[in-house]
Design a protein that fits this description.
alpha/beta, 2 domains, Arc Repressor Mutant, subunit A, six-stranded parallel β-sheet
Length: about 210
């Protein structure tokens, strides 16, 4: 299996160097580029085409959320993993809604970043436990009418999503087409008022629709 190619976007040199050094010790991870300024981010990603972009949530003079959206549009195969010192709602929800596949805090254990890189590279999502608490608050609603509107099939899809299954795996388990799964997922998002799979699952857990 080929190495996971990573580009680091971090304006603090010491932090960037430390993360790069730590990641390169892993036999399956290769840091193929580093970005110190937001203005060069898009060009670097388009040129290097990494598997994962580790993106600092706050780069001075740069609108990171807008960059994340642009990257998802222009380089859809590049997965974004946010590495941030902040777990404030505007950062977390903004970046996950923009298409980030994971969110790790800078003071999480270093091993958590490695696990996040591997999880995201495999097509999954990774959220720091402390960030998950922020998401739970952001998707908590007093009105439970949306949850009762979910069909039995949508609840089955939700359960499988909560266990980390991709659309193709859900389709196989439920003996339906992948497109049908996508339709169910879109319907779930609309009914729950969320934008990502992570938000949907956390909403369901918080409202006791499914068990953690």
């Amino acid at each position: 299996m080929s190495n996971i190619k990573v580009v680091l976007a971090e304006d603090h040199h010491v932090v960037r160097a430390a993360v790069a050094t730590f990641l390169t010790k892993e036999p399956d991870i290769e840091v193929v580029g580093e970005v110190a300024e937001g203005s060069t981010l898009m060009d670097a990603v388009e040129k290097l085409r990494p598997d994962i972009l580790i993106l600092d949530a706050h780069m001075p003079g740069h609108k990171v959320v807008q960059s994340a959206k642009a990257l998802r549009m222009n380089c859809p195969d590049v997965k974004i993993l946010v590495l941030s010192a902040y777990n404030r709602r505007e950062y977390v929800v903004g970046l996950l809604s923009a298409g980030a596949a994971g969110y790790v805090l800078k003071d999480d254990p270093p091993e958590m970043l490695v696990r996040a890189v591997r999880k995201v590279a495999a097509g999954g999502e990774w959220i720091s436990p402390r960030v998950a608490k922020v998401l739970v608050k952001s998707v908590r609603h007093d009105d439970k009418s949306a949850t009762t509107a979910l069909t039995d099939r949508e609840m089955e899809v939700m359960e499988l999503m909560a266990h980390g299954h991709k659309n193709e795996e859900i389709a196989e388990k439920l003996v339906i087409t992948t497109q049908t799964v996508k339709n169910h997922v879109r319907s779930i998002f609309r009914k729950l008022g969320v934008k990502t799979r992570v938000e949907a699952v956390l909403y369901a857990i918080n409202n006791k629709l499914i068990r953690p």
